[in-house]
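Morning F.,

Quick status update on the modeling queue. The single chain you submitted on Monday has been processed. Sequence for confirmation:
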Amino acid sequence: MTIYNSKEWFKSVFYIHKSDTFRKLVPYLVLMALLSWGIAYLELEYLKLSEKSWLRNINMVHNLLGFALSLLLVFRTNTAYDRWWEARRQWGTLTNTCRSLAIKLDAFLPRADKASRHFFRKSIPLFSQTLFSFLRSDYTTFMLDTADHPELDLEKKHGPNQVTSMIFRQVTELYQAGKISGEQLIVLNNELQSLTDVAGACERIKNTPIPYSYSSFIKKFIVVYVFTLPIGFVFSMGYFVIAAVPFVFYVLASLELIAESIENPFGTDPDDLPLEQMVLNMRKHIQEVLHA
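Structure tokens below.
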């Protein structure tokens, strides 16, 4: 995740960073400029159409559809950001849960029980590390796919569940050994349940992308909308459509690319969540609490 100063305008405007949509759209912008030039030349120089041509009225269609396209793009970006923010909330919950679990275990466990302290000092951060690796893997991408994927070991065990089960078994053994009371076991059970809830919520975000038909329709809508722009605008703008049409395409396509970038917050893009640093922070804080 890129850390930046939101109040710094100059760098945001003139610096083209790795995730900037302009980098990805350069070939398409050149194509749109060539297409616009070709249509303008065809209508003005070859066909010599005048402003009385019926083609100039095609702009009325763009005016009508522009509002619908703007609504679709706003909904698209808002939905993608909701997924990103929900993922950030879940990992914030995971951070608080791991800290609370470590603090409570530190209070419940005797100072002399170094073995149990060492176990939880290692196993609690292991859950966040395992969940991080699980969300980054292709395993979660194809969990709900009905097609066969022989290149992936989809029969392997669920890592986060295995770690949670290991921690719960250890807590149960402490209760059976009389090292923690029944009331303390209930308190710890709430924290352990929260770990499973966070893992399930993250899987839901990762495994349920925006419906394909919706995403595909927006892309087709943008392409058809922009490809037909120069046909009518050439009568009022002339060869200026060579610059105007690519700019319109840049704005519309950038919104779709931004939505694509943030709808999967567990990836490695500059806009994705800094899961590596969050995992390291959790390990550091838990080790500080559960010192031997």
